[in-house]
Amino acid sequence: MTTTNLILHQYDISPFSQKAQKMMGLKGLSWLSVEMPMIAPKPDVEQLTGGYRGTPVLQIGADVFIDNWMVARAIDQSAPDGPLINARGPLVDAALYAWGERLFVPLLHSALATYQSRWDADFLADRKQVFPDVDFDTLEIGDPDRCSQLRAYLGAVHAQLGLNGLFLGGAQADSADIHVWGMVWMIYSALPDLVPIVEAFPALVAWYQRVEALGIGTREDATMEVAWDAIKSGQKRRLPDTPAEEPLSEWLGDAVQVSAGSADRGSVAGRLLAVDREQAVLAVEPLPGLEAQVWFPRFGYHLSLAG
Question: All domains of the chain, ordered by start, with CATH?
Answer without folding.
Answer: 6-82+219-305 (3.40.30.110), 90-212 (1.20.1050.10)
